[in-house]
Amino acid sequence: MQGALAGLDARLAAAFEDAAWQALVKAELAAGDVRRAAAFDAGADIDGLLADRSQQVDAVLRDAFRRDFQQTEGLALLATGGFGRAELFPHSDVDILLLCEAPIDGVRQPCIERFLTRLWDAGLAPGHAVRSVDECIEEGRKDATIATALLELRPICGDPAPGQRLARSVRSEGFWTPDAFFEAKRAEQRARHARYNDTAYNLEPNLKEGPGGLRDLHTLSWMAQRIYGVREVSELKPLGAIGGDELIAFERERRALSHLRFGLHLVAGRREERLLFDFQRPLAARLGFKDQAADNLAVEQLMQGYFRSAAVVLRLNGRLLQRFEESLTGEPGIEPLDEDFAVGAGYLRLLDAQAFQREPLKVLELFRVWAGNPSIRGLHSSTARALGEALPLIDEGFRARTEARTAFMRLLRGPQPVVTLTRMWQLGVLARYLPAFGNVSGRMQYDLFHVYTVDQHTLTVLKNIESFASEDSKQRFALAHELWPRLRKPELLLLGALFHDIAKGRGGDHSKLGADDAIEFCLAHGLSTADADLVAWLVREHLTMSVTAQRQDISDPEVIARFAGIVGERERLDYLYLLTVADIAGTSPKLWNAWKDRLLADLHGATRFALRRGLENRVYADERIEETRAAARERLADAGIESADIDRVWAGFPRESFLRYSPEQIAWQTRGIAQAGEADLPLVLVRPHSRSGALEVFVYSPDRDGLFAVAAATLDRLGLSVAEARIVTSTTGFSLDTFQVLDAGMDFVSPERRAATVAATLREALAQMPDEISPPNRMIPRQLRHFRIPVQIEFGQDASHDRTRMMLICTDRPGLLARAAAVLRAHRIRLHDARIATFGERAEDFFQISDEANRAIVDDARLEALRAALVEALTDSTDKDSPNARQPAHA
To answer: N or C: more exposed end of the chain, with fewer CB within 10 A?
Structure first.
């Protein structure tokens, strides 16, 4: 690359005409871009590539400056920002400063305008500033961002005197005091991290500005320059402000992130710092990653590398920031805790820096002491450095020691076990002690269902479990606070959570592989066979309760009996319920809702009932019906509803109503019907759910084909997504249909007004009952376009109910249910039950359907015609040619 640059100055000098010069510059810059892209693909050194583009742009700027400024005394051209560091990425801004000894006069103003126009016409589009030395100093003293930019000035050409004078002023004590600069940059970093939710684990991370990104490394460099007066981070090592391993890690991650950013610019074809879904697959391919298994895609390997780098950067960032602060404030006095540890200024300190090296078991002892002293703010930076240097000592021999295993289990059984595991994860200890967990650190799944990496998801699940002890958890989970105190050994649930996803990415069933890991670990750590079996069972079955609740009809006694047969006993049911709700709620901030909470609580209650009766006595429908009727009647009597009115309404309720609906729902429906007159039909009742954002909608109307399609389309237009639909027909020919709906983002003023609006709009639509239903046609969100799942339709027969089961799997999209309902109506198919589940971009909907005579559909040709129509209606034109992501596994 140096050879390609060598003759550039001469070629530019030979171009006398402006047009010729501009054409030559454009050609040279384009050729340089092509040359560097090829070198990047061939594995060239990233620092060399960045310097090469900087040098090429330097040459262009020097020649342009020579052409437009005849008198350069007192005038300098300097590079700033990344250009000042000689780090120009393919589409980075070219930031320059025209620096003058004195304010610009009327003679030089036209020269400056001509110079900048020349650069724009040549395609450079510089970010520029024109200031005098005094103006720079004055503005820099007021603004830390400007002061930072002045730290990175690099002279390109012109009179060196202004730049030298400015540099002396910028590095003087009076410009910015080290402590003020440190506080300003730390506040700036905190605000920047907050914009990204204080996490590096975003699905579409920002490589430059996000937590753990390049800007965090730049910030450390700027602070080092101001506090210690050095020009490079490497100069901190002789000062003892950075360790050898830390410096290696700093440079390694800077180069890794720079490599990713360079490649991102190439695949995006523009200045782009966000690793959007649009670019993740192309970048993985360009960097040479290959799919290794269905659950270890090339794009997932790319992102795992990024997340691991970001985690190291965050760890370094925290450690060095504390060290910088200590250098400014001085070392505080310390208070010994025992012979190995002390506290100073709230930080836990290792008294002997070599203690870990002599006895690695003290690493686990550190976390025990930390957990036992809640007032400790964190680790002292010297202790954090010693811990980092000790990580290689946590090897196979260490893990095999009985004392280490005993110490680890003591941490799980001691105070703050989840906080301790989180600290061990953040500091790199957990990945060393549990290598299988280290393998999933930074591992993401390329879908919209799993918004966290596997390790972060696991820690989030553990934090959810920890929250069960709090009264506040009752606002989020129906039963968790009640069940948590009953657990015989809470650490078994923590181990189940720790291992439940530990085998992801291995190319097999992660539940079974993780169960094998769990039982081996538990037995090695002294757990009894019974306890080890419970943990392994939790890992193996951690999806079972979620699948049963969301995909099957839990009002069906046979479904409950099958699930109870898997669970077998009340203790396992409680453990599995707690792991399931913590797992679902820990998969995505948007995934847990009141609907799922009720489903799982209902499944837990029904299964507990079945286990109490005994698995051999599975026929208890009559008993459940009588219990429901009695409880509902009691509620209605309290509400002042006469017994005769109750009997009149219930005369039209089929048996399945009392199986499918709770006593409270039956009472609500009955009261509404009993108080309604002929003029009130169709009757639509809507009430807010006990948790925000959810509504229950009940429709009582003369039953007609297409009623569901009209209701689904209307609810969709109101911005409500249907989580479940229960379609029941009374013995007198009326609908008894219930919809559980969630707010999909419409801006309603209050739950009461929202309920009234939905009721009025839906009643009007059902009264009109148009022949043609036009589902809303809204654009698919950008992210969904990258996760295309082909429409899959499967049919099965439910002989016990004389119904046909239909399973629909496809990409989620606005108006999906309304479109499917419109197809069913067009094909004269009756819908009797609908269970709606969405996992990120993947919709899994289950229906019970019949023909016009309410019988199962046995005509294969009719089913195939229905399948074809649904595929056509639910497949976008963009789906037909675009590659699909692999089918995501559910957490």
So the answer is: N
CA geometry: angle at 556 spanning 551 and 561, to 5°?
95
Least-confidence region, from 44-58, 333-347, 544-558, 784-798: 784-798
Query: In three state form, how does the secondary structure of 801-833 look?
Result: CCEEEEEEEEECCCCHHHHHHHHHHHCCCEEEE
Measured CA to CA, the distance from residue 267 to residue 278 in angstroms comes to: 9
Q: Is 769 within 8 Å of 713 (Cβ atoms)?
A: no
Buried b (16+ CB within 10 A) or exposed e, 235-246: ebeeeebbbeeb
Residue of 638, 643, 610 whose CA lies nearest to 624: 610
Q: What percent of the residues of the chain are helix, what percent strand, and what percent coil, each to the nearest 5?
A: 55, 10, 30
642 CB-contact burial (10 Å; exposed 0-12 / middle 13-18 / buried 19+): exposed
CA distance 82 to 94: 8
Question: What is the distance between the alpha carbons of residues 469 and 15, in angstroms, rounded to a whole number?
Answer: 77
Neighbours of 51 (CB within 10 A): 18
Exposure of 823 in the CB half-sphere (CA atoms within 13 A): 19
Going by the DSSP 8-state scheme, the letter that residue 274 receives in this structure is B
β-partners of residue 160 are none
* Residues 103/158, Cβ–Cβ less than 8 Å: no
Pairing of strands 792-798, 830-839: unpaired
Mean pLDDT, the chain, integer: 88
Secondary structure of 326-344 as H, E, C letters: HHHHCCCCCEECCCCEEEE
Return d(Cα 349, Cα 326) in angstroms, integer.
13
Residue type, 130: V
Tell me if residue 850 falls in helix, strand or coil: strand
Contact 460, 419 (CB under 8 A): no
Q: Order of strands, edge to edge, in the sheet holding 694-702?
A: 683-688, 694-702, 734-743, 720-726, 830-839, 842-850, 803-811, 792-798
- Using the structure block, give the residue that is written with the tokens 């066979």: 529
* Total residues belonging to the chain: 891
| Concatenated DSSP letters of 82-127 | HHHTT---TT---EEEEEESS---TTHHHHHHHHHHHHHHTT---E
In this predicted structure, the answer to whether residue 108 has a pLDDT above a threshold of 90 is no
Q: Which of 813, 623, 628, 847 is nearest to 726 (CA)?
A: 847
Question: 212, 220 in Cβ contact below 8 A?
Answer: no
Q: Name 265's Cβ contacts closer than 8 Å, sequence gap at least 6.
A: 89, 90, 91, 92, 271, 272
**pLDDT band at residue 553 under the 50/70/90 scheme:** confident
Separation between Cα atoms, residue 554 and residue 565, nearest integer Å: 14
CA dihedral (11, 14, 16, 20) positive or negative:
negative
Angle ∠(873,806,796) on CA atoms, nearest 5: 140
Alpha-carbon span 448 to 35, nearest angstrom: 37
What is the layout of strands, in order, in the sheet containing 95-100?
Answer: 127-132, 95-100, 75-79, 154-158
pLDDT digits (tens, 9 = 90+) for 490-542: 999 999 999 999 999 888 899 999 999 999 999 999 999 999 999 999 999 99
Bridge partner list, 50: none
Per-residue HEC secondary structure of 53-72 comes to HHHHHHHHHHHHHHHHCCCC
Structure tokens at 290: 């290959």
Q: How far apart are CA 556 and CA 484, in angstroms?
A: 28
pTM: 0.76
Is the Cα dihedral 530, 532, 537, 542 positive or negative?
Answer: positive
* Encoded tokens for 25: 């510059």
Q: What is the DSSP letter of 443?
A: -
Instruction: Quote the tokens at residue 885.
Output: 């992501």
Q: Which residue has the higher pLDDT, 579 or 695?
A: 579
